[in-house]
Amino acid sequence: MIITEIMTKDELLKLQNLLQESKEDAVLFVEDKIQLRSKKKRIQKKFRKKIITQLSSMEQAVHTDEEVIAEQPEVDVSGLPVTFLLGLGKEYFADLDIVKYYYTKSQEAYYKNKELLIETINKAIQEETSSVRKEIITKVEEKKK
Question: In which domain of life is the source organism classified (predicted)?
Answer without folding.
Answer: Bacteria
